[in-house]
Structures are given as C-alpha cells and as structure tokens.
Specification:
single chain; 145 residues; mainly alpha
C-alpha cells in the first residue's frame, strides 16, 4: 500500500470515529434530557408549597389548563430545545467538514451545503416559535383570556 492509501484509510477511520462519538453524545443528551424532568416532577409534586406532604386531592401533572397552552408548551419545552441542540450539532458538523476539506472542492461544497442547511433549520425554529406566539395571542384575544 502506498502512503496515500494509508492516509485515506486513516481519515475514513477518524471520520467514522468522530461520527460515532457525535451520535453517542447526542443520544446521551436526548436520553438525559428526556428522563430528568420526569424525576424532578415526581420529587416536586409530592411536596406542597408550604413544605409538607400533599394530602389527598388530585394533581395536574400536565400543568396546562387549555389546549393552546398545551400546544405552546410542547413547542416551547420540547421542540425548540431539541431543535436547538440539533442545529448546534449540525453547525459543528458543517464546521468539521469545512476544516477537514483541506482544499478539496467537493468537500468544501458539502461543508457549505451543510452550513446552509443548518442556518435554514435555525430560521425554521425561529419561525415556528414566532408563529406559535402569534397563534396563541390571536386565540387568547378571540376568547378574551
């Protein structure tokens, strides 16, 4: 094998290892972020505001009273944080592609495309949040609440 072939194989192994590490980190972040609120809610809901244990009665585990508040809560508390993490990870990936291109036009184009897609994703997240706020304000003004 020539030196060029050895370097190409080494670069492929490095890319695969980086992709595996990135997917592993992202999976751990999503798993940790999904289960921590469940445990913290269980710990908080068992104590009354005065500090004593709750006695009887039912608790509202959803903590949203209307459908519009529920939908806005899902967008605000689930979709936006996950989307933000994905945008940041994709921006890091695009930067990695651009840095590792080393003048290769094909890789530079791939990196530029990934960067452009990450920016478009960020704008979609901002647009979703703005649309959700507008719909919530409109519904509240129609209902009078």
């Amino acid at each position: 094998m020539t030196m060029k072939h050895m370097l190409i194989k080494k670069n492929e192994r490095v890319r695969k290892a980086m992709a595996f590490a990135l997917v592993s980190i992202l999976s751990c972040m999503i798993a940790f972020g999904s289960f921590v609120p469940l445990f913290s809610h269980a710990a908080i809901s068992s104590v009354s505001p005065g500090g004593g244990a709750t006695s009887g009665g039912s608790l509202n585990p959803i903590q949203f009273n209307t459908l519009q508040d529920l939908l806005y809560g899902i967008i605000q508390n689930v979709l936006i944080p996950i989307g933000t993490i994905l945008v940041v990870v994709y921006l890091i990936y695009a930067g990695f592609l651009l840095v590792s291109a080393r003048g290769d036009e094909k890789q530079v184009e791939k990196g530029k495309s990934a960067l452009f897609n990450a920016v478009i994703g960020a704008f979609i997240l901002l647009g979703a949040q703005a649309i959700a706020l507008m719909i919530q304000a409109t519904v509240k003004s129609i209902i009078g609440g």
